[in-house]
Specification:
With 292 residues, the protein is of the alpha/beta class. The protein has 9 helices and 11 strands. The chain has a single domain, classed as TIM Barrel (Alpha-Beta Barrel), CATH 3.20.20. The two termini are 21 Å apart. The mean pLDDT is 96.
Amino acid sequence: MTEKTIRLNANFRWPQGKRVAVIFNIAYEAWSQGQAPGIGPMGNILKPGFFDTNAHSWASFGAVRGLHRLLGYADQRRVKTSVMVNGVLAQTAPSTVREIHQRGHEIVNHSWGMDVLPVYLNEAEELDNFHRNHDLLTQVSGVSPKGWISPRGTGSQITTRLLAEQGYLHHGDCNDDDRPYIKQYGDRSIVCIPLTMDVNDLPTSIRYGHSARHMLNVYEDTIEAMLHRESGPLMLDVTAHTHVFGRPSGAWVFDEIMALATAKDEIWVTTREEMAHYVLEQSKAQPNWLEQ
């Protein structure tokens, strides 16, 4: 099958001629039964063969409190977010998954659990994982997901093609651009929306140990550079994990960034699904916005 990549050139603009788009992501994550995160608040890992109850309990905070806190802030700001949801949560916490859609936010398919990475699966296993999640998320939430992001943003070498063949609109398993782009496989197209990592609580606070305020400073500096030092179209993700910045110590930063973004007329605040639709529509209507 012929594969083609279509990128956006410097003429591309977001709605109303805006150059900068910001997406607010919420990572609502869990692990398969009997599995726990490889990291936790204590920092040191247990001996092999022992279940880390501390890390498991820490991660479970997302379903109990974190998701509701972050959605509450978003609703107060009238911001629609893109929520990455593991399929296992549709099984263990169906009411929270249903609530995401009922409150008007986008549900993004995020594999069965954070321990189920497509890069480890063969094609048949990857398709089974995709359909299992898609069907359960659809059944529980009442809406069919149109986008995908793999755990760790790490798909396999065929994930993009498989998603396009399954009729998905967009995915985020890419970091090679600061604009979305289109992948074509024969008569199938999918929008690749980079999952930018500049303003993301997991690397900021868990990997590098910065305070929550550091993420706010990075956002402010990045937006300043995008608006006043750049001339081409750009996008930026702001990502909070429900078990990390779903806590009061970090959720305030997610809220503050939403306040800053929505106050600037130069910024288009959108979801991944809305962005994907816009890119596909404009690629047909404005061919001069595409790289040749």
